[in-house]
Design goal:
Largest sheet: 7 strands, mixed
Helix content: under 10%
Shape: globular
Strand content: 35-45%
Structural class: mainly beta
Number of helices: 2
Length: 621
């Protein structure tokens, strides 16, 4: 019988049934499409062996005028500035207590009670003590004078810590530990930590039981909400904002180990915002813009208020006739979800549509115009610049914007939205991979509290692919990082707050280990309309091995079959294809078949060409 070429349509299509998508691909993991052909995605390795604490959901990379590369890393526990291989803790200090802290220890216990009036700490906060003296026994001055994590908050004036030595080992008090640590103990408190989970909305259930009247709203503070940072560089300096929390400034001239400080603490500051939802630099005239900021004189976020500083100023926020500081409250919607600086405008997504913010100069400085009603963002980080367009994900689909918002035809739409955890929607984020003409969105599936799946859209070829974050691919932030050698991504380690940054699109391994990639076709009939059973007697593969390491490199072809669409697929034959393979004789009988191509490797990639099969009519024995 003659050989027949089987060429499958590019992209994953799960909008119909497996059988109705005959001639296409139906499932994949760690696969992308390039020039219409599926290939294994590139690998990743650690950017540095140094680690950071907490889940990072914000990265910002820039290069200063002296050609020094910096990366801002915002986690739910800390705020870091990466310079070289080092993560410098520049988390702002919330409170400094001077000569006011005392300690109390109990014989046989490692728990130390700390008394500090109106400390304002929450469980998990970081505090550093200084000027303490020994309690008289094992709890020495060296034990006390270091950084601690607040273990349990007891009252507004007390909390406890677990005593440790300078190597981190637990220290137990003895009967001699009866002092109070001295009369001049100081404490420096970092800003309150945030949550690593998203709390959906406010109201009943969001506060402690009986904390308010029945049906009353319980506001969610920045320390009791998913911690999302926004960042940008103001020249060589770094500005940052906690969503629903404080706004901070890091001054490069003070050095990489200097803490960021609140805007209101900057010398000469005039009515700067003290709270906002997001911060960024303008595209013209170097204005700092805060979205969802407090009004002048206010202390709470106005979720529709946009405020900006005077041009080229981080401290002048008071509008006058002689400067360009100002503000506008948006008229539509109830809150700003997110904003993105594009080539000619800043796009602002509210919960009901999109507003365009454009620089127009004096006297108005910025103009605001509604450009779309309906489409919004599923999360503050779900919009991406790529291909001179903006691509974004909302609660019901994917869109592109280039002057107007257009819905993207998506062949995996139902697959994604029928299996997404909208209760953790603010964890969703998008990123670009411009070398491969891709936009990627990472999201948590319905049964997951953390990101565990992704979808890739190739905007030049209009193809979609899907996958999971298995094999060390869990990502919580990702930036193109043009000043660096590779795209940079933050990973999340299951069950640990110790995490790393990774170089993406590098090599073919999972940080030196193998990772599995596969693609599986939809069912295809071996005879017209599946009328007869058929016999596959030969398979001629066409595979390009990339960065081949040896003749033993292999890709596995699995022929699956079933007689009726509602039956389960069964494996008929498995074939290992190497660079030296020519053809494989097979013995696979079925009415309809599917093909799965997969491998697990750490030092080479692969790309599929055209498959040929030798098929003849046959009976079922």
């Amino acid at each position: 019988m003659p050989l027949a070429k089987y060429v499958f349509k590019p992209g994953i299509n799960k909008e119909g049934t497996n059988y109705s998508n005959e001639g296409g691909w139906f499932d994949s993991d760690k696969i992308r499409f390039r020039k219409g052909r599926p290939e294994k995605i590139a690998g990743w390795d650690k950017n540095t062996l140094s680690s950071f604490e907490g889940t990072c959901r914000s990265l910002h990379s820039y290069r200063d005028q002296g050609q020094t590369d910096y990366v801002g890393v915002g986690t739910h526990l800390k705020y870091y500035l990466k310079q070289g291989d080092n993560f410098n803790n520049i988390t702002p200090i919330r409170k400094t207590s001077t000569n006011s802290i005392t300690f109390a220890a109990t014989n046989g216990s490692s728990t130390v009670v700390v008394t500090d009036s109106s400390h304002g700490a929450v469980q998990g906060d970081t505090v550093t003590f200084a000027q303490a003296v020994s309690l008289g026994g094992n709890i020495t001055a060296d034990v006390l004078n270091q950084e601690y994590t607040v273990n349990i908050v007891l009252t507004a004036n007390t909390y406890n810590i677990i005593a440790k030595d300078t190597s981190g080992d637990t220290v137990t008090a003895n009967a001699s530990d009866s002092g109070n640590g001295g009369s001049g103990v100081d404490g420096s408190y970092e800003i309150n930590i945030g949550l690593d989970v998203f709390v959906k909305g406010t109201g009943w259930g969001s506060g402690t039981w009986s904390s308010g009247t029945w049906g009353s709203v319980s506001p969610i503070s920045a320390s009791s909400q998913l911690r999302l940072w926004s960042q940008d560089n103001f020249g060589d300096d770094l500005i940052s904002c906690i969503r629903g929390g404080g706004i901070f400034y890091w001054d490069e001239s003070a050095g990489a180990t200097q803490r960021a400080v609140a805007f209101e603490d900057l010398a000469g500051a005039s009515n700067p915002p003290i709270i906002a939802l997001q911060i960024m630099m303008s595209d013209v005239d170097k204005h700092i813009i805060c979205f969802g900021a407090n009004t002048i004189g206010g202390s709470t976020s106005d979720p529709l208020l946009v405020r900006w500083s005077d041009k080229e100023s981080s401290i002048d926020w008071t509008p006058t006739s002689t400067n360009q500081a100002g503000g506008v409250q948006l008229s539509q919607g109830s809150t700003i979800i997110g904003a993105l600086r594009t080539r000619q405008e800043i796009l602002i997504w509210t919960d009901v549509g999109i507003v365009s913010m454009r620089f127009v100069g004096e006297p108005f400085i910025f103009s605001f115009a509604e450009v779309a009603q309906g489409p919004s963002l599923i999360s503050p980080n779900a919009a991406v610049n790529a291909n001179n367009r903006v691509y974004f994900m909302d609660r019901g689909g994917f869109y592109s914007y280039s002057g107007n918002a257009q819905r993207l035809a998506c062949t995996v739409l139902d697959h994604i939205y029928s299996d997404i955890n909208l209760g953790q929607q603010f964890k969703v984020f998008g990123t670009s991979n411009e070398n491969n003409n891709e936009v990627i969105w990472f999201y948590p599936s319905a049964n997951s509290m953390e990101i565990d799946k992704y979808v890739i859209y190739n905007y030049l070829e209009n193809t979609w692919s899907i996958g999971t974050t298995s094999d060390g691919f869990t990502r919580t932030a990702w930036i193109e990082a043009p000043s660096l050698d590779f795209p940079l991504a933050a990973a999340k380690t299951t069950g640990s707050n110790t995490n790393y940054l990774y170089n993406q699109e590098k090599g073919h391994s999972n940080d030196g280990e193998a990772f599995t990639a596969y693609i599986e076709s939809s069912d295809f009939d071996l005879a017209p309309d599946g009328e007869r059973f058929t016999f596959i007697s030969k398979l001629i593969p066409d595979v390009e091995f990339r960065d081949q390491q040896s003749t033993s490199d292999s890709v596995t072809f699995t022929i699956k079959g079933r007689d009726y669409p509602l039956q389960d697929l069964s494996t008929l034959q498995t074939i290992n294809v190497t660079p030296a393979s020519t053809f494989e004789n097979t013995r696979a009988r079925t009415r309809q078949a599917a093909l799965r191509i997969s491998n697990s490797s750490n030092n080479y990639g692969w790309r599929l060409g055209d498959l040929r099969l030798e098929i003849r009519p046959d009976g079922k024995r």
